[in-house]
């Protein structure tokens, strides 16, 4: 993700659609339970709250605010800059989820048809979540519980935990950080309780000590490159 392009895109899109409904500049937007909305909510200095059982046919965008989506919704892409994004149980996101300074949380049974990405924040997915694209961040943990990721997990400095038969069908890639302050720290990748990485684990940062913990049947079917492997019977 190009951070600056992402921010500029959000501001331009918001500005161009100020004449539409569900659009604001300095206010939060709330959509009630059960509503169907043709134009996605957009704001600059405000949060977006979407109730339960909603259908949102356009992307939801904000700059300085959070996005919270309720249960059993069908929505398009969700993007913010300076806050987090939470997606409720059994909701389908037909698009990507992205933020810069905030975390992303997907509750049980969520389906995401594209990537999930953040710069400074964690990514957490609960039981039954399916992600059709990549998971990526720079600073923050990745926590997957009984979750399927169709492509790769990419991070720079975040610990990664896979629990309860989670599956990554692509690779886990630890990219090289340009920050000298993060040298010589240890990054942990825990693959536990029958979870599987079908691709490789590739560490591109030689200044980062990476330990891959294989716990209770956790497996990596591909190569493990530039990381120490620790096999354990019980969780750490």
Helical amount: under 10%
* Ends apart, CA distance between termini: 33 Å
Sequence stretches where pLDDT stays below 50 over 5 or more residues: none
Biggest sheet: strands, sense, closure?
A: 11 strands, parallel
Structural domain tally:
2
Strand share of the residues? Answer: 35-45%
Rg over CA atoms, rounded to whole Å, is 18 Å
Mean pLDDT over the residues: 89
What general form does the structure show?
A: elongated
Structural class: mainly beta
Strand order in the sheet with the most strands: 1-3-6-9-12-15-18-21-24-27-30
Structural account:
With 236 residues, the chain is mostly beta strands. The strands form 4 sheets. An 11-stranded parallel sheet has the order 1-3-6-9-12-15-18-21-24-27-30, with no helix packed on it. Strands 5-8-11-14-17-20-23-26-29 form a 9-stranded parallel sheet. It has one helix at residues 3-16; strands at 29-31, 36-37, 48-50, 55-56, 60-61, 67-69, 74-75, 78-79, 85-87, 92-93, 97-98, 104-106, 111-112, 116-117, 123-125, 130-131, 135-136, 142-145, 148-149, 153-155, 160-163, 167-168, 172-174, 186-192, 196-197, 201-203, 209-215, 219-220, 224-225, 228-232. 6% of the residues lie in helices and 36% in strands. The protein is elongated, with a radius of gyration of 18 Å. The longest helix is centred in the first third of the chain and has 14 residues, at 3-16. It folds into 2 domains: 1-151, no CATH class; 156-236, no CATH class. The protein contains 1 helix and 30 strands. The protein starts with a helix and ends with a strand.
């Amino acid at each position: 993700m190009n951070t600056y392009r992402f921010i500029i895109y959000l501001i331009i899109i918001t500005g161009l659609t100020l004449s539409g409904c569900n659009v604001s500049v300095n206010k939060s937007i709330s959509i009630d339970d059960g509503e169907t909305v043709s134009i996605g909510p957009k704001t600059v200095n405000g949060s977006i709250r979407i109730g339960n059982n909603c259908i949102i046919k356009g992307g939801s965008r904000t700059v300085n605010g959070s996005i919270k989506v309720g249960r059993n919704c069908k929505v398009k892409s969700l993007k913010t800059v300076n806050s987090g994004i939470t997606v409720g149980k059994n909701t389908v996101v037909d698009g990507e989820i992205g933020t810069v300074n905030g975390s992303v949380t997907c509750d049980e049974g969520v389906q995401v048809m594209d990537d999930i990405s953040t710069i400074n924040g964690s990514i957490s997915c609960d039981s039954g979540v399916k992600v059709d694209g990549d998971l990526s961040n720079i600073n923050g943990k990745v926590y997957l519980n009984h979750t399927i990721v169709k492509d790769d997990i990419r991070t720079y400095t975040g610990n990664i935990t896979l629990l309860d038969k989670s599956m990554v069908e692509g690779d886990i890639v630890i990219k090289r950080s340009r920050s000298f302050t993060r040298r010589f720290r240890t990054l942990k990748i825990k693959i536990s309780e029958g979870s599987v990485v079908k691709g490789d684990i590739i560490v591109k940062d030689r200044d980062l000590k990476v330990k891959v913990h294989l716990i209770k049947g956790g497996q990596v079917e591909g190569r493990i490159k530039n990381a120490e492997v620790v096999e354990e019977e019980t969780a750490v």
